């Protein structure tokens, strides 16, 4: 098996290179694993994607990338490989699987902490914990294939712009999450760690996003499903029938986020908790939605109403830090949020094969789409269509050592 190694020196607390040299290189040496090229320390955004793509243009067959970074660098590699027209060896060779050894050196490490749920905060920072994927590579060689969420950003019908594809291995979102990522990037240099996301969240909590959504059925079930907290299972959505499985959702939206492969966006923030408890069969996305007009106390749209709902949304989404407690919440008749009863669910938690998001022309922020932290903008008059896909066999696509 051919092996490459990449360190992102600026991600997380900027310790990836030191972590690799101190803890990873000695284990590779001991196991007599030889790299196919000198370890790459990236010098700029885009470097990891270029490096891996160029490698596949000169060498054929499956290979492994030992990646000391966060989710964004993995996204960059997958995004670049998916969107670069094949040339060199890659143009004529059969597809080859790329398997990642993950070393969690980023800020949030959503994929790593979902595949290796830490037992405690202390556990998550221990060297032993951070070497779990490497140990799997050196010992068992077991991998899990990655589901990808492919989001096509289509321009309006008569535009000359070509469609673009955003590739996610973790999250594809619009609304609050996309706005937070958009604003957090600007704060990266001045506000360290996860604090920049909290700061960006505070700036955006009171926004609503005008769009219409269609959810598509998952391949395995043929339906769009909705989480039923009382029965603790996904059940077909009442609108999703065998003959007409699509589900339409009208806005405004406060939160719209889908995940693949993960049940959390940070070690303790389990936003789609049942992705792990009740794993999907086949390609599927877990989608969490907050629509303010489901709140019985929201009778009109005004600044005060949005600010009051923002407080509620903050508390509700905070449930993700309590082991996914947000998924059971219901409205009382007066709009109070309860942990029991039979009122409307506050959070709509769907499992589906994909979604289409068509933003209202006049709402600029509703045009933002986030794919694993990278923010894209839908052209005016365009739409975003996201579909879950998994590798057809173990000789193609992407995987992670677990
Ligand atoms: N040398 C570099 N200089 C500047 N940016 C880089 C460099 N190397 C990689 N990048 C970019 O850094 C970004 C952030 O990296 P990454 O997401 O891996 O870390 P993070 O944001 O700290 O962690 P996480 O995604 O887990 O929150 C990526 O978009 C990547 O393209």
Radius of gyration: 21 Å
Question: What ligands are attached or bound here?
Answer: adenosine-5'-triphosphate
Strand percentage, roughly?
A: 25-35%
Counting structural domains, the number is 2
What is the share of helical residues?
25-40%
Mean pLDDT: 95
Largest sheet descriptor? 8 strands, antiparallel
Which structural class is indicated by helix and strand composition? alpha+beta
Question: Judging from the principal axes of the Cα atoms, what is the shape?
Answer: globular
Straight-line distance between termini: 17 Å
Regarding CATH, which class of the largest domain?
A: Mainly Beta
- Unreliable runs: none
Strand order of the largest sheet: 11-10-17-14-13-8-19-20
- CATH fold-level name of the largest domain: Tumour Suppressor Smad4
**What is the overall number of helices?**
12
Q: Write down the oligomeric state.
A: single chain
Domain DAGKc: 1-156
InterPro entries: ATP-NAD_kinase_N, Diacylglycerol_kinase_cat_dom, Lipid_Phosphate_FormReg, NAD/diacylglycerol_kinase_sf
GO molecular function: lipid kinase activity
Pfam family, one: DAGK_cat
């Amino acid at each position: 098996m051919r092996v490459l190694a990449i360190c992102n020196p600026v991600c997380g607390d900027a310790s990836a290179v030191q972590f690799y040299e101190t803890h990873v290189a000695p284990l590779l040496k001991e196991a007599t694993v030889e790299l196919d090229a000198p370890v790459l320390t990236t010098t700029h955004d885009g470097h990891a994607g270029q490096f891996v793509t160029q490698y596949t243009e000169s060498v054929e067959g499956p290979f492994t990338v030992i990646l000391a970074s966060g989710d964004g660098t993995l996204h960059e590699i997958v995004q670049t490989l998916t969107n670069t027209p094949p040339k060199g060896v890659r143009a004529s060779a059969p597809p080859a699987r790329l398997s990642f050894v993950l070393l969690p050196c980023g800020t949030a490490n959503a994929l790593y902490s979902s595949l290796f749920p830490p037992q405690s905060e202390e556990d998550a920072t221990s060297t032993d914990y951070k070497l779990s994927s490497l140990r799997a590579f050196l010992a068992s060689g077991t991998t899990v294939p990655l589901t990808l969420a492919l989001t096509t950003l289509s321009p309006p019908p008569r535009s000359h712009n070509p469609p673009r594809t955003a590739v996610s291995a973790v999250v594809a979102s619009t609304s609050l999450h996309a706005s937070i990522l958009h604003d957090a990037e600007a704060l990266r240099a001045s506000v360290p760690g996860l604090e920049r996301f909290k700061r960006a969240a505070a700036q955006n909590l009171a926004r609503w996003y005008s769009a219409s959504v269609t959810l598509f059925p998952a391949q395995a079930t043929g339906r769009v499903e909705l989480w039923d907290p009382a029965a603790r299972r996904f059940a077909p959505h009442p609108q999703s029938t065998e003959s007409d499985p699509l589900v339409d959702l009208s806005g405004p939206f406060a939160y719209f986020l889908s995940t693949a492969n993960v049940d959390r966006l940070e070690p303790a923030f389990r936003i789609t908790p049942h992705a792990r408890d009740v794993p999907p069969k086949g390609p599927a996305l877990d989608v969490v939605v907050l629509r303010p007009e489901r709140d019985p106390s929201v009778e009109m749209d005004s600044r005060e109403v949005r600010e009051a709902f923002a407080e509620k949304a903050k508390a509700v989404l905070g449930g993700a830090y309590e082991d996914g407690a947000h998924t059971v919440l219901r409205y009382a008749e007066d709009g109070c949020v309860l942990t029991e009863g039979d009122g409307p669910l506050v959070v709509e938690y769907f499992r589906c094969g994909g979604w289409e998001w068509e933003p209202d022309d006049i709402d600029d922020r509703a045009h933002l789409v986030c794919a694993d932290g990278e923010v894209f903008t839908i052209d005016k008059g365009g739409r975003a269509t996201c579909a879950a896909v998994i590798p057809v066999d173990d000789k193609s696509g992407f995987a992670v050592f677990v």
